[in-house]
Design brief:
Blueprint: E1 11-18, E2 21-27, H1 31-41, E3 47-54, E4 57-63, E5 81-85, H2 89-103, E6 110-115, E7 120-127, E8 132-139, H3 141-147, H4 152-174, E9 183-189, H5 193-210, E10 214-218, H6 219-225, E11 237-242, E12 247-254, E13 257-263, H7 269-280, H8 293-301, H9 326-343, H10 354-383, E14 392-396, H11 403-416, E15 419-421, H12 425-428, H13 432-445
Parallel strand pairs: 2-3, 6-9, 9-10, 11-14, 14-15
Antiparallel strand pairs: 1-2, 3-4, 4-5, 6-7, 7-8, 11-12, 12-13
């Protein structure tokens, strides 16, 4: 029973044990009644938490009943009171337990991360022991897909309009405020300059206002390390980062040491998929509205024949780990033009062969990625740059969410003796959680942390 009425009786509604100490969660009206409860029960070692109704808020007070030297918190500490807006008593208790779980370990730090490198405004809060405490995201994807691509000035305006709301939502979801945040991480490169500027400026504002250190983050390094928040992947490991703006293979030696094996000469795979999707007018098909081009092509490929159109795989005679996707894009366009002439396609009409074209395009991109990864694995095995007991491939970035590509890479790893590690889809795409976790890794390693008095030295860098 959750009794938060205006009666003067005290009712124990829950309890929680943290750090071997028992907290009673009580429903009452005044702290004085709690003291009376403590006196009547003759128990002077129990911390008592009281939940007081205050209109639409539930104000939570911590009362203490033994020597100050043994307190987890002090009355002078600003954390002796919280307000949970529009929470029910049950949810208040849940959030309070959650807060206490990560607030009592003095060896754990909390990092807030901000991501605005492209068209997603993201904020995440993680602890240095790998707990996801809160997150929020505002996506511009639907708008930009309707506009035919990302328009930087519009992306910047929407970042500015929503960044404060997104950060506040992440704090609310974690039941925290800035006083318990130890550092602020923010993407500073690479990305769209106008978008990066919004995130960096806001992060500097937070650090200056609350006297917090700033942790500059490389967007692609954050993608590479996200998996370590979820699974045990030790350094060094091989990573394939594939997204709408980037494509590279590297050996990750530590939090801030990457050995580049290959990169794209031209387009990124996600960029090629998006452009081909727009050329095919896939967004005119039912159910494709608001999706990214890559996701739409992945869905449509399931109904197509991947051998229908012989798109050539690039760089077959080049013995390295570099990529090229511009040729695939141009080859696909030639087949699209031929098919449009064949079927007399006009205006917004969609080709009847759209499914086969999607499948054929996705297939050749998948082959190209797999072949380069095979070469990278062969190099690592020959050079022993990755020990035999640490043969892991991490795949991240938006394209890593593609099920067909992931399945093909798993086959390559299986045949090569490597283990495959891929974050869940919502952490493959751009988000604030990955920035916060990269900040947490840097916090632990004491690498690249900028004191709040030196914020002027931090700048952003576009593509």
């Amino acid at each position: 029973m959750y009794d938060c009425s205006l009666s003067r009786r005290i009712h124990v509604i829950d309890n929680v044990t943290v750090a071997s100490q028992t907290f009673l969660i009580l429903s009452t009206i005044t702290p004085e009644l709690v003291r009376q409860y403590n006196h009547d029960s003759n128990n002077h070692t129990v911390k008592v938490i009281t939940i007081l109704p205050e209109r639409v808020k539930w104000r939570v007070f911590i009362e203490y009943f033994h020597d100050a030297d043994h307190l987890l918190f002090s009355r002078e500490n600003r954390q002796h009171c919280w307000s949970f807006s529009k929470f029910t008593p049950r949810k208040t208790i849940f959030q309070l337990k959650k807060w206490m779980m990560f607030s009592t370990d003095t060896n754990v730090s909390n990092i807030l991360g901000i991501e605005t490198s492209c068209d997603d405004t993201g904020c995440g809060i993680v602890s240095t022991d790998g707990k996801l405490l809160g997150e929020a995201l505002f996506s511009q994807q639907k708008l930009h897909s309707e506009l035919g691509g990302i328009i930087p000035p519009i992306a910047k305006r929407l970042h500015k309009e929503h960044i404060e709301e997104v950060v506040n939502d992440a704090l609310v979801s974690s039941s925290m405020d800035m006083s318990v945040i130890d550092g602020v991480a923010v993407t500073v490169k690479p990305g769209l300059q106008l978008s990066l500027a919004v995130g960096v400026e806001y992060a500097k504002k937070l650090c200056s206002q609350y006297e917090k250190p700033l942790i500059p983050i490389h967007h692609m390094e954050a993608h590479a390390l996200t998996i370590r928040m979820l699974e045990k992947v030790d350094f060094p490991f091989l990573v394939l980062l594939v997204s709408g703006g980037h494509s590279l293979i590297a050996v990750v030696k530590s939090v801030d040491k990457f050995f580049l094996l290959g990169k794209s000469y031209d387009d990124a795979p996600g960029e090629a998929l998006d452009k081909i999707a727009r050329r095919l007018k896939v967004f005119n098909l039912e159910g494709m509205e608001g999706l990214s081009g890559g996701k739409a092509m992945e869905i449509l490929s399931e109904k197509g024949n991947y051998n229908a159109f012989p798109l050539g795989e690039p760089l077959l005679h080049q013995r390295d780990c570099d990529f090229s996707f511009a040729g695939i894009k141009n080859s696909a366009r030639q087949f699209i033009v031929e098919q449009e002439e064949k079927y007399s396609i006009e205006g917004d009409q969609v080709l009847p062969s759209v499914y086969d074209l999607c499948a054929s395009t996705q297939f050749v991109i998948t082959k190209h990625l797999c072949r380069r990864i095979q070469r990278a694995i062969s190099f690592c095995q020959w050079s022993q740059i990755i020990p035999n007991d640490k043969q892991s491939l991490v795949v991240s970035g938006g394209v890593a969410a593609n099920k067909a590509i992931k399945a093909a890479l798993w086959k390559v790893c299986q045949e090569s003796g490597y283990s495959l590690h891929v974050p869940p889809p919502h952490l493959c795409t751009d988000n604030g959680v990955m920035i916060a976790w990269n900040g947490a890794e840097r916090w632990i390693a004491n690498a690249g942390i900028v004191p709040h008095g030196q914020l002027a030295s931090v700048d952003f860098q576009g593509k």
